[in-house]
Give the backbone structure.
Amino acid sequence: MIPSRLTGDEAVTPLVSVVVPTRNAVRTIETCLRSIRAQTWPALELIVVDNGSADATWAVALRHADLALRGGPERSAQRNQGIAHAAGEWICYLDADMELAPDVVERAVRTGQATGAVGVAIPEASVGPGFWARCRALERRCLRDEPGLLWPRLIRTGYLRDTGGFAVWLTGTEDAELHRRMLADGAPIALADALIVHHEGRLTLRGLARKRFYYGRGLLAYRRAHPGALTAQARAAARAAWRHRRRLLAEPGVAAGIIVMRTVELTAYAAGALAGRHDLDGQGPAASRSTSSASSALASSEDRSLARTDTVAGPPASPTAPTATAERPLTTGKNSSRVAPGTSRRPRLDTSSESENRPTTGSTTHPNRGDHT
């Protein structure tokens, strides 16, 4: 149930800034942004940060967003750019292949208000055609209620800005890094009674391996920043599997597929970690709040292209460079607002390299980068 409306200061309706990084996401972006615009929460702004899409993603963003930005080179930097421009008391970060039921934001905010949490986790339900998508869907159903794997999706803006936002030196594990940072800080995380639909598309083992190899390049940096985190996550996944063993045994073929899929992914992660060892050359122990070194930026353009999607049919790579420009549509959605009483503008978060932070009026070419599936 949604917690009842509160009285006093908590009764004030806080503005929620929804930040969506995009890159060549025309397959799902319309559905994603429409679902955000349909939210029942009355104070909401939508910020889209696009990384040089070559398809119709940018045009769709301009139709729906309160603020459309261009930036990169990776998802963490795009999110940080959105956070830096946000006016809301809360940040809800989503990917372009996610869809919300109309009351998801409201349920999440009410949960945060009622519990006093700094972050609110919103479980995901994976959907998509094919056997491997069925495996992913069952896996996510088993992980939904595991406390050790609750990555927050709704977070108080002040916390993100005070701690530097998302780690730009990671790609793929930045959500887990933020989670571990919040745990270390003692920042409470609550679980919302809501569900995000994740449109995975048709998954393939080859596509999953490519993506995990790319993500794995930053795995050693993540482990150095958060010793013991990988072991804790593995134990949490094992606990969830044991707790839901009856559900897994009810679908033995799919359960066996999960084992195969996870074996492929873990092998690719390990291979990526070995390939990314040179990313740590000359570095001391990483601090989780340090955003001065971006290990993901050291990956080759070929690796970035391979990691772009794990679906059979994906949008083409883009030679268009991200820019640090912003455009606002002439019209906004019914829930949009740019006013957040008590919200101030803090020091700029790390959004990318210095050259990519510099405002421009044109664009240059760069290799295909990023992954937002």
Notes: The chain has a mean pLDDT of 79. The chain has one domain: 8-357. The domain at 8-357 is CATH 3.90.550.10 (Spore Coat Polysaccharide Biosynthesis Protein SpsA; Chain A).
